Amino acid sequence: MKFVGKSVKRVDGVKKVTGTLKYVDDIKLSRMLYAAVKRSPHAHANIISINVEKARALKGVKEIITGDQFERRGGLYLEDKNFLAVGKARYRGEGVAAVCAETEEIAQNAVDLIEVEYEVLPAVTNAKEGMKPEAPLVHPDLGDYHWAPVFFPKPGTNISNHYKLRKGDAPEIFKEAEFVVENNFYVPHVQHVPIETHTAIAQMDADGYLTVWASCQSPYAVRQALSAAFDIPLNKLRVLSPAVGGGFGSKAGTTLEGIIIPFAMHAKGRPVKLTYSRQDEFENAYVRQGLHAAIKTAVNKEGKILAVQNEFIWDGGAYTEYGVNIAKAAGYASAGPYDIDNVWTDSYCVYTNHPVGGPYRGFGMSEIHFGIEQNLDIIAEKLGITPVEIRKINGMKPGGTTGTGEVVTVSGLMECLDQVVEDIKFYERSEPSSPTKVRGKGIACGWKAPSMPNNAASSAIIKLNEDGTAHLLVSAQDIGQGSDTVMTQIAAEVLSISPEKITIKTGDTDHTPYEWQTVASRITYSAGRAVYEACHDAMDQLLDLSQIKLGIFKRDLELRDGYVVSKIYPDKKVSISELALGLNFEDGSAIHGPIIGRGSFIPPNIRNADKKTGLGDHPVVFWTYGVQGVEVEVDLETGQTKVLKVASCFDVGRVVNPQLLEGQIEGAIVQGLGTALFEELMLKEGKVLNPSFVDYKIPTADDMPEMIIKFVENPEETGPFGARGVAEPAMVPSAPAIANAIYDATGIRLNTMPMTAEKVLAAMQAK
């Protein structure tokens, strides 16, 4: 039986469409208590005093906490964040105190009674301004913080990471180049807006055993962070994530879990729950960081890029414990999917008094490509060549080198480019729907590597049941991308049993094995490989027992349709069910016992890059390449842009589930369309002005374009069946392709997102 490469139905599909899948907010525990948070009205302010007496006197209030009771900082990459503000508030909406009460209403009423005296401080509301020596310091104690050695904060400034890449000698090339082009771009903050807002429940037993239910992408990462923050041994801390209603990166770290744990410690076994409102989700969950990008390019008259010099300034917000890694990832990917000999990049993550920046689908790649791919079209026009030609000349091919100096062995970029040019009919013009409208086409390439440390491990366990069915245990979280189904398919393929006979269990740190994080588009690759190894371990045990049972050498046996079968004499076979609990003999004795397969995986040979230059021969495990082409129609009277058609092609290594993969690409296209045309978290003096779906616009069914989706398969050597991840890379080219299409239609170049009707109309009128 073959299952990899087929559109197997989602294993969670029935529960999701019938509404029976249980999310954290659906969990009802007896004697539940509820938490609410007092938040700062100021973007930057010292906390002079907090008076909780009136709130404490309110009937039904059980406990009140403030940040100074829990001063230990946490963070995955840079330990800079407290769960409640300590000493000062660093963004508008930051929690300064919290209440635990019998009902949500009582908790909120108590919050309103808390009195806080502030000393308002000058706020940093622009990352470029925040880099200046005279800027107010958001974190004066940065030098006392702990961080991973691959990041480079600058104590005494607002720079939480300065990543440098120095390949070749770009400054010297610029002196002699035939053409030098300089362009600037800006990408604003956006929100993830998952349908399910953040929710968590915490309960501590009498013996000090803490259980946390959280809508999180990475239960093991949350467990580690909470263990460190509250000094709880890992064997006394359980994190469960039963289901996640969308994440896109916003649920990758800890958010509200640390607020309710102190309450759980005092609640004598009663569970405590906190659920974010939609406004909370906009203001207090991760946002995508803003970006100021300056790109300087040297090119010869044939269109070959000789050198590029980038400056990326990231608005990381009030805490950048996750954002420092985005600056790093953007730095080593800053050449884009192009073979360029001289690449100099400075990528800065900067503290501001804005909401906390964190991981968002694309992890910096969508933001930098908005500039990289428009810059390429600008150069092509100056040289009188087509956007396709300049990408053919410079695009990454096997044997080329990345910005870090890594030699590329696998790249399907040119194949993807040819496919998209054909599918979008790039060189053909189509008639607009009315005389007041114009049409244009644009193209953009993109790439992304999994941004993860060298020891980002995955593991899996497969248990065979007496009837030949199986339970698969992993901690990779299905946040909508379909990983539960893909893991099941991989297991089914190795063991040659139907996916319907495998039940997958995820997201319980007590009962499912270790997974670093569900981020970085790494799950199909890393967790999938762990499942592959676990099932091969089980298969090996089955073959050992079958060799004894059938009297046939192991090398001459294979798994087929629920049986271990002789390759030479197919009628000689034994069912998996007969061997699931070991091998029994006629005299009543038995050997082995239950079949349990174990698999683990760490991406091989990833090595740190040089700290001074950023150069390295293998700093990432692989690159995923792809291309998107777009056709748009622009209304000359209103500036309204309609995306009519999108053609997409990515090199995915191996297609595991075509339907799920198409769904991934479709979602990425629409999400990219939203950030390109509609989405912006509007901030004024640190205040979010549009914290609701009334004012923050996302795409609807009416905005769906026609989508043509194709794949290229150049196998990834270490991936399961050759697969590599594409969930995030698929969004990377969307916005720049739309920007290039708008230029093709109207002749106006927009260097800021979103490219709203107002901006398009104003630019056309100015032209």
Summarize the structure in words.
- With 767 residues, the chain is of the alpha+beta class.
- It has 18 helices and 33 strands.
- α10 (365-383) packs across α11, α10 packs parallel to α17 and α16 (658-677) packs across α17 (734-746).
- The longest helix is centred in the last third of the chain and has 28 residues, at 523-550.
- The relative contact order is 0.13.
At CATH level 3, the topology of the largest domain is Aldehyde Oxidoreductase, domain 4
CATH superfamily annotation of the largest domain: Aldehyde oxidase/xanthine dehydrogenase, molybdopterin binding domain
* Helix count, DSSP H or I runs of 4 or more residues: 18
The appropriate CATH architecture of the largest domain is 2-Layer Sandwich
Query: How many E strands?
Result: 33
CATH class of the largest domain: Alpha Beta
Question: What proportion strand?
Answer: 25-35%
Tally of discrete structural domains: 3
Structural class: alpha+beta
Tell me about the largest β-sheet: 7 strands, mixed
Q: First CA to last CA: what distance?
A: 62 Å
User: Could you tell me the radius of gyration in angstroms?
Assistant: 27 Å
Question: Helicity level, as a percent range?
Answer: 25-40%
